[in-house]
Design brief:
By secondary structure, this protein is of the alpha/beta class. It is 23% helix and 29% strand. The protein is built from 15 helices and 45 strands. The strands form eleven sheets. The protein has an eight-stranded mixed β-sheet with strand order 19-18-20-21-35-34-33-30, with helices on one face. α2 runs antiparallel to α15 (840-858).
């Protein structure tokens, strides 16, 4: 409205333009006119002083300025004649333009050269013009630069087409042409031969740039004569089952040679004949198989009979299936493992097998010397990539004074990652963590001198503890009291414990049975119990065994019933109030034997591991010591409470993919014949497998050059995680982090990673770490770096025929270009208009100043 009244006004050889149209602009102008009218009425009222009238006039001008600026006014300078310039010729060199063969391509270039030659002949001063020729595929490449434009037609006809590109980025070509024209002395024109079937780039943006610079795009449309012959589509399911054929499906057009491989291995090919009576596409179906579970890929390529460029594609899939176990030695017990969950391969110690290709390796009753030199080192390297290890000591070797088979493995490269060691000297020099529990009787019978002796005794035990130890103090009377707990017995923890003991009071009955039941629930791995009391009524009812080294200490000359389990019994003299207290639990253990005779039935330390301890006797075990908690989890101990594990497993704290287990005796063969034994076999193996929950995540992986795009979806009954960490562990030991971010629904995460792809496939591990849970280590076969067979990289060429006529028409109409099939441009004096100069920011600023001044003057005192 306001700007439209002035549009077309010429000021200093520049024309006023009002680009913004439509109802929002009209509404803004109407509001501005209303504000101006109200301000004017206020200013002309008889009661207003001259200062107020000036303020009203400023408000009127400010309102009109805001309304004028709503149309985004700009000044367009008149076109200035520019003598000379550049003709930029763009030749679409993509695959869709070459389907007619070499003769048709040569004819098309000759036609373009003839059209450009006729345009050059119409130039008034051709000596002032230059020429540039570009091929356009996935990128623009210059093939000729001419200072004299007269030679441009011959350069177009003679330009070597080179290999056709499998992508078309016309935006890159137009951008290169505009840059070439900008380098020249004046204006210019673009001559484009294409079918308009683009795959990449923001073509419309470059068309708008050309229009703003008044550079016409003249188009010689060359339709793709027929659809492409070759691979049109391809797909494989997102997940497969190990041991079952996987089906690769696709669509091809024409005949040729189809070739494929699985994870870079087992190549296959077949010849496909074109249908004799039809040129339509035909489906293909190829059955393949995966030898290993995890994330794998298939490479599919097709060489058409027409000689067109091979299109080679790579698709990934997640292969689920039973964990693959490699077993050395008899291990008859493993036959009871579920075949739905575990696939078993038996091997001789001399067989050249690669442990890294298995989910777990079990060595049953064999010494390291039975294997080739370097086998333990290779097994450790495989463990670092997620292969679990189980060393079964087997039956007794020699006498009980002889070192057992597990000691031989401790002397190899695997020694530092095993969950136990059998050297008594190591145990004496550096005892493992002790989980100490002091059970303190505070019943009424302990009142007086007995309680006075019990509290200093508990404090004496505290002084023997180390920071690596843990402590629990459990007082009891009629019922167990609130326990005192510390995971580390530091000096501060000792002071807190002494203060806790001083606050305890005596009174009530003697419910030792309930206290022992609760103590059993609080026990740790290398646990030691100290029961301090008077052995009075209530102790004879104790039935549960604490499964820990237990020391009974009777105060003031009292004694305990014989029924109460103990490893040491110490009866304090009357009047004891402190002094030296020699306790067997804290004495270094001097062992001269390395084997404990059986039979005995192991007992699980934690209720969650009860399935590991079926009621089947173990003949005997090698005496070993558990490594410090928390790296070690002891699952089975003998029933007499000594800290000698029957089965222990350890996840290395520094390399969490390394999981090693030891069974310190011979696993009963009967495990394979009883339901509980089979359950124990499965539970034992499950502790070793790093990818023990194959259904937890769906994984989609795609490759783009050297980059992999990963999408992980949590599934199953567990709550979807809010955060997820992941990385790729390479065979070299290098870890490449994968930056995951939430992607859509809860439990879906996506990210990209560049894992240093090489010229050949390589084995790696995708490590997914859910919060608070053990990592899932999923085998991953990394593909080689993609070798592009087109100029640049981009999405594949559209496999169709004909023209993108709408795009070509848009180019011509927006820039004033011609259709070279019918017209040839004529340039008398090529004119170029500079881009419009926006003036609305200045108008808005001036209006704001006027409005502020009107408010200031309008508020002046009368």
């Amino acid at each position: 409205m306001i700007c439209s009244l002035l549009e077309g006004l010429i000021v200093s050889q520049s024309e006023l333009l009002c680009p913004a149209k439509g109802w929002p602009t009209r509404a803004a102008e109407a509001l501005a006119l209303t504000a101006a009218l109200v301000s004017l009425v206020w200013a002309v009222m008889p009661t207003r002083r001259s200062l107020h009238r000036l303020a009203g006039l400023m408000a009127v001008l400010a309102a009109l300025g805001f309304g004028f600026a709503a149309a985004l006014p700009a000044m367009q300078a008149e076109a200035a004649a520019r003598i000379g310039g550049t003709y930029a010729v763009l030749i679409d060199n993509s695959e869709s333009q070459t389907r007619g063969g070499e003769v048709a391509d040569r004819q098309a270039r000759s036609l373009l050269a003839e059209r450009v030659g006729r345009a050059i002949a119409r130039l008034p001063e051709p000596q002032r013009w230059s020429g540039r020729v570009f091929h356009v595929g996935a990128a623009a490449s210059e093939v000729a630069r001419l200072d004299q434009i007269a030679a441009l037609p011959d350069a177009i006809a003679a330009a070597d087409p080179g290999p056709p590109a499998q992508a078309t980025n016309l935006a890159a070509g137009l951008g290169a042409a505009l840059a070439a024209i900008d380098e020249g002395p004046g204006s210019g024109s673009i001559f484009l031969m294409t079918d308009g079937l683009i795959t990449d780039g923001e073509t419309e943006r470059e068309i708008a740039r050309a229009a703003a610079l008044a550079i016409p795009i003249h188009v010689l449309s060359r339709p793709a004569e027929r659809p492409a012959a070759g691979l049109l589509s391809y797909d494989i399911g997102p997940d497969q089952a190990l041991g079952r054929p996987a089906v690769l499906r696709g669509t091809i057009l024409g005949g040729g040679r189809l070739a494929w491989d699985v994870n870079g291995e087992n190549p296959g090919e077949q010849t496909v004949e074109a249908p004799p009576a039809s040129r339509g596409p035909q489906g293909l179906r190829v059955e393949i198989s995966f030898a290993r579970r995890g994330i794998g890929y298939v490479t599919l390529g097709f060489h058409p009979d027409t000689g067109a460029v091979l299109r080679q594609e790579r698709v990934f899939t997640l292969v689920r299936g039973p964990a693959h176990l490699l077993v050395y030695g008899p291990a008859r017990w493993i036959e009871g493992a579920s075949r739905a969950d575990y696939a078993i391969t038996r091997a001789d110690a001399s067989d050249p097998v690669k442990p890294a290709s298995y989910d777990a390796v079990i060595v049953d009753g064999l010494a390291p010397g039975a294997f080739p030199v370097g086998f333990p080192d290779g097994l450790l390297a495989a463990a670092a990539a997620g292969t679990g290890i189980l060393i079964v000591n087997g039956p007794q070797r020699g006498s009980i004074e002889d070192r057992q088979l597990i000691a031989d493995w401790e002397a190899t490269a695997l020694g530092p990652v095993l969950p136990v060691h059998s050297d008594p000297q190591k145990f004496i020099a550096d005892p493992p963590r002790r989980d100490v529990l002091i059970i303190l009787d505070l019943s009424g019978s302990m009142d007086g001198p007995r309680a006075a002796a019990a509290k200093p005794l508990a404090k004496a035990i505290l002084r023997a503890l180390r920071p690596v130890d843990s402590l629990t103090i459990l007082p009891f009377a009629s019922n167990p009291g609130a326990p005192f707990n510390r995971a580390s017995v530091t000096e501060a923890a000792k002071r807190d414990a002494e203060a806790f003991i001083d606050r305890l009071t005596v009174g009530g009955g003697t419910n030792a049975k309930a206290a022992m039941r609760q103590a059993g629930a609080l026990r740790g791995n290398n646990c030691q119990f100290f029961i301090i009391g008077d052995g009075d009524q209530g102790y004879s009812a104790v039935e549960s065994s604490p499964l820990c080294f237990t020391t009974l200490i009777g105060v003031e000359g009292t004694s305990f019933p014989d029924a109460v389990k103990r490893d040491q019994y110490k009866r304090l003299p009357l009047g004891w109030r402190g002094g030296e207290l020699k306790l067997e639990a804290f004495e270094p253990e001097q062992r001269d034997a390395f084997w404990r005779e059986g039979p005995f039935v192991p007992i699980a330390v934690e209720a969650a591991d009860a399935s590991l301890a079926p009621p089947l006797a173990v003949a005997g075990i090698a005496l070993t010591y558990a490594r410090p908690w928390p790296a070690t989890r002891i699952h089975l101990i003998p029933p007499d409470g000594r800290p000698d594990p029957v089965f222990a497993v350890r996840r290395d704290p520094d390399r969490p993919l390394i999981v090693a287990g030891v069974f310190s005796g011979a696993v009963p063969d009967a495990w394979a014949r009883t339901p509980k034994g089979k359950e124990a076999s499965d539970a034992l193996l499950r502790k070793l497998i790093s990818w023990d929950d194959p259904q937890r995540f769906d994984i989609d992986l795609r490759q783009a050059g050297a980059e992999l795009a990963v999408r992980i979806t949590a599934q199953g009954d567990e709550p979807a995680p809010n955060r997820l960490s992941a990385s790729i562990l390479l065979a070299s030991g290098t870890t490449v982090p994968l930056a995951l971010t939430p992607d859509g629904p809860l439990g879906v995460f996506a990210g990209t990673v560049r894992p240093s792809l090489g010229a050949a496939p390589q084995q790696a591990t995708l490590v997914i770490e859910p919060d608070g849970k053990d990592p899932q280590a999923i085998p991953l076969t990394l593909p080689p770096l993609e070798q592009s067979n087109s100029r640049g990289s981009g999405t594949p060429e559209l496999l169709t025929a004909g023209l993108n006529g709408a795009l070509l028409a848009q180019m011509r109409e927006a820039t004033g270009g011609l259709d070279l099939r019918y017209d040839v441009p004529s340039v008398a004096a090529q004119a170029q208009r500079p881009p419009p100069l926006a003036i609305w920011p200045a108008v808005v600023g001036l209006s704001a100043v006027l409005f502020a001044a009107s408010l200031f003057l309008g508020g002046a005192r009368r």
